[in-house]
Design goal:
Length: 518
């Protein structure tokens, strides 16, 4: 064996990747299969996909990777799978699908059929979560299937996260780690096990216990690559598949965030800020911390649901001329827009965006807001305001988590597709007033997943050792003091006061919509 390798499958929203990772954190080789149709919309707002769509793309990428690395196949010591979160698969008694997958981007809602016992309704009202719990119930995909497809519900014997299903297809065992079980299902994230029947919030998505699946610790062997999976994927039969975590958990570890003074930020379809804590705490009231792939810890997280998706939306809706110009210049539309937005001063000459494009449990009445328009603003001001708004929201999230967790963040590590933008990284540093660090690869998720396997196989004595060997800082963005001052003025005097002041208007808008008056 020249050097031990981990075969990593990273199944994302837009593509599936098969990657070989070594102990130095190098990407030895990578094959990416982009989806021509990331999800299907049977109705507006819905997002579904065929059950074996992700497995087929994963295997297609794997076959190409294995074929062109025949000389390295013998160096592979384990396989790991890391997957998008909150994407559910419904299976019958033979673990065959009873319906298509419901994607995490699905926005359907079911009716609220008043399922909560009277004493729980009183409890929710007393703690100020009566509206939030109804939103959680209505947006649960399992509740929608139970209420709208009773025949499917009757045939469904297991409801699993996509990661658990992929584990099953590779090994024949339907199991996964708590760090990969992030979805609207009855998970007790503090105890890292399924909720009991008596838990207060079990009623939000009360999946019967027999429909849930086996949970095992991160780092444990789920099973071994079967003959059938080997034929489909090209991966060697008999290799151990080791439990890891969901994409955000693996990315956090892959960015070296395994100590309390660091935070990771993902500039992805949804944008998140995550910390590392060996003590459980709620990052926001009633919002759980998710299990880390390091079994003794959690990753408190706050999410901007539409994150850098907003830039894709902007390009689609407003940037046709820029796309044509970028094509003539031989660059991407994002690169051209970043250049234009870099010419806009910090603070966008008073234009500000609040990125609440999607209501959530804690802000049930929220909408996105853009304020401060004047006749001198251009579309490039709007583009930059989107980035600044996401950064301001993530900054507010960090300050909230620091207070609740009694922590102090000293450095930021950034990943996700948006981290390729120097402009976005610099705005982040200027907003936070902290160094923002970018590592040697944009494949931080796969690096983190591979770390779990290397530690599990004894190649490293600890995660600290794995980080020292596998994570290398490449770029550091130092905050510009005068820009930080601009952003702090905006944050303290305007940004953090917006939602509180306009929430009554948002509630009125919701009321008018519910009465079909808008």
């Amino acid at each position: 064996m020249d050097r031990p390798l981990i075969l990593t499958y990273d199944v994302g929203t837009q593509s599936a990747r098969a990657i070989l990772v070594d102990k130095q954190g190098s990407i030895v080789d990578k094959v990416q299969m982009k989806y021509t149709e990331p999800y299907i919309r049977p109705q507006p707002g819905w997002a579904e996909q065929k059950t074996d769509f992700y497995f087929a793309h994963m295997c297609a990428a794997s076959r190409v990777l294995m074929e062109r690395n025949k000389d390295k196949v013998g160096d592979i010591i384990a396989v790991v799978v890391t997957v998008i979160r909150d994407t559910l698969v419904f299976l019958d008694e033979n673990n065959r699908p009873t319906r298509d997958i419901i994607h995490w981007l699905d926005a359907r809602k079911c009716e609220f059929d008043d399922p909560f016992p009277w004493w729980k309704k009183i409890s929710f009202k007393l703690i100020g979560m009566d509206k939030g719990t109804k939103i959680a119930y209505r947006t649960s995909k399992v509740n929608w299937v139970r209420l709208n497809q009773p025949d499917v519900w009757e045939k469904t014997k297991k409801i699993v996260c996509l990661s658990a299903y992929l584990n099953f297809r590779m090994t024949g065992r339907l199991a996964d780690s708590p760090a990969n079980t992030i979805a609207h299902i009855p998970m007790d994230y503090k105890k890292k096990t399924w909720m009991t029947e008596n838990d207060l919030t079990r009623c939000l998505y009360d999946v019967p216990q027999e429909k849930l699946y086996e949970l095992i610790p991160s780092g444990d062997v789920i099973g071994y690559i079967t003959k059938e999976a080997a034929e489909l994927s090209g991966a060697p039969e008999g290799l151990p598949l080791i439990a890891t975590g969901a994409d955000k958990a693996c990315e956090t570890l892959g960015l070296s965030v395994a100590s309390p003074e660091k935070a990771s930020i993902s500039f992805g379809t949804s944008s998140t800020i995550e910390m590392y804590s060996e003590n459980y705490f709620e990052p926001q009231q009633f919002l759980p911390s998710y299990p880390s792939v390091i079994n003794k810890a959690w990753n408190p997280e706050i999410q901007v649901f539409r994150g850098f998706w907003m830039l894709n939306w902007f390009i689609k809706e407003f940037a046709d001329k820029d796309k044509a110009e970028a094509q003539e210049m031989g660059i991407s539309p994002e690169e051209l827009l970043n250049r234009r937005a870099a010419e806009v001063p910090a603070g966008c000459n008073g234009l500000m965006l609040q990125p609440y494009w999607t209501p959530d449990v804690l802000k049930p009445d929220s909408y996105g807001a853009i304020i401060g328009f004047s006749d001198y603003h251009t579309k490039y001001h709007i583009y930059r305001a989107i980035i600044e708004g996401i950064c301001l929201e993530l900054y507010m999230s960090m300050k909230a988590m620091e207070r609740r967790g009694k922590k102090h963040i000293e450095e930021i590590f950034v990943g996700g597709g948006g981290s390729k933008s120097d402009l976005a990284c610099q705005i982040l540093a200027d907003t936070f007033g902290l160094p923002v660090k970018r590592i040697h690869t944009h494949e931080a998720c796969s690096i983190g997943a591979a770390m779990v396997a290397f530690v599990a196989k004894g190649e490293f004595a600890s995660y600290d050792d794995a980080i020292k060997s596998m994570v290398h800082e490449k770029d550091v963005f130092i905050p510009i003091p005068e820009h930080h001052e601009v952003y702090m003025n905006i944050y303290n005097k305007v940004y953090r006061k917006i939602y509180k002041n306009v929430r009554p208007l948002y509630a009125t808008m919701n009321n008018l919509k519910e009465r079909n008056m808008l």
